[in-house]
Amino acid sequence: MTDYGVLFRELAVPRLVGTPNHRKVRELLARELGARGFSVEEHAFSGRPARMLFGTPRKIAGINLIARRPPVRPSGRPPVWLVAHYDSKGQPVSMLVRLIGFLSLVIGLVWLPLGGSTLPIIPLALGFSILFHNRVTDNSPGAVDNATALVAVFMTLDQLPRDAEVGVIFSDAEEFGLIGARALAAERAPLFADAAIINLDGLDDIGTPIAFLHRPGAVGNAVARSLNARRARWLPVIVDGIALGRVARECVSILKGNARTMAIVHTPQDGVARVRLDGAASVAAGLARVLRAG
Question: Of the candidates 78, 74, 48, which has an alpha carbon nearest to the alpha carbon of residue 66?
Answer without folding.
Answer: 78
